[in-house]
Amino acid sequence: MKNIILLSGLLLAGLVASQLLPSLIPSNYYSGYAYCIRILTTVALGFIMIRVGYEFDIDKRNLKAYGWDYVVAATSATFPWLFVATYFVFVLSDSTTITAWKESLLVSRFAAPTSAGILFSMLALAGLSATWMYKKIRILAIFDDLDTVLLMIPLKMLLVGLKWQLWVVMIPMILLLWAAWRYLHKLHIPITWPWVMSYSVAITVVLEIIYYSSKLINEVVTIHIEVLLPAFALGCMIVHKNISTKEQGDCEFQEDIIEKHTEKRASFIVSIVFMVLVGLSMPAIVGIAGSHAEVNLIDQEIIDAYIIDESFIDVYIIDESKLSRDDLVPQPGASPNIEALPMAWGWIALHVIIVTLIANLGKIFPLFCYRKEAHWRERLALAVGMFPRGEVGAGILIISLSYGIGGQSVTVAMLSLALNLLLTGIFIFVVKKLLNSVDVKIKT
């Protein structure tokens, strides 16, 4: 429980720092600071996704047994995603245009993936590792992480459009998926944390080279491959066994290596750093009374839609306490966008609570499945066990920011993620109470 509170607290600390640092860092150094934060965040996310991929395992000889599990996992990821996206469009946005739906569908994807790493460790500490629920949730949590990674491809296509650069991105992604399946746990390379970190750094460097090379061809439409799939695919390919410590003269299983105290501590430190970086990556919060919000002047659609009195602009910073509806004059034919208008913290808190509730409500679907395998309390425990969100969801928000998506929806999503982290201990407590209330038998 202490670790969960620490992770969510650091995420919130990063969020607070992200609002203060822009005014403290000289404007000529800010772009360099932002770039360093982005790279470090990508490396940390790559490390986490390699470990997530490593945990993914499937018996290819019995694929039919996983078919229904994947349907349950995909549905459990889809419902919260669509619930939150709908809320963002109809409540937090003043527009129901295609653009609003595209952005909301990407931002709301943070609500889909269950935090496998946090969940597994908490359930094990609670003494539930021998239950049917634990065995089933290991499959579902990994599958809904996989579903999230795969869905990023059509979501990116929805945002960018059918550009030739997107097809260049699609080819390596398809190859990565094929390689992850063809060579599932067959790649004999080390899995200790220094090696995993070096793999993540190498992947990040390659992706950055591809990105900046594509900018030389087209400054506007670039080839941007997120770290999620390459890192996940590499983790899937790394073999589980046959890494030996020659100085000891015997073979040590990799499962034992990553369960060592030093490996667990390293993974936890990376998670801590990642949560801070996620918070620091947050742009100045738009739409909160009294805040100073950074204006994304690259967004030509906003520039064309509004005429803003130049007296309010100072190095791309607007003092929103001086901003009123009269200062935003829509151009003919432009859709009004009042998301930059002030919103009180009380309203932000209310939206965060509602988004958290509907996101977790969408995870209830497993309750209605596996009726022949488990008691309804076990199935409810399985559904509640899917509530925790964490690093993968935070990674989705980072990707959203990289596409220039901001405003109240991203703010609410980030704070909802932090709230869900704080509630993880309560979720696990509920799971344990539900399982203790029935005669739980180990089911295979």
CATH class: Mainly Alpha
Helix content: 55-70%
Query: Reading side by side through the largest sheet, how are the strands ordered?
Result: 3-6-5
Question: Helix tally?
Answer: 17
CATH topology: Na+/H+ antiporter like fold
Structure characterization notes:
The protein has 17 helices and 7 strands. The chain is mainly α and 444 residues long. The chain has one domain (2-288, 343-436): Up-down Bundle (Na+/H+ antiporter like fold). The strands form 3 sheets. Strands 3-6-5 form a 3-stranded antiparallel sheet, with no helix packed on it. Strands 1-2 form a two-stranded antiparallel sheet. A two-stranded antiparallel ribbon has the order 4-7. Helix 15 (391-402) packs antiparallel against helix 16. The longest helix is centred in the first third of the chain and has 29 residues, at 27-55. It is globular and about 60 Å long. The two termini are 29 Å apart.
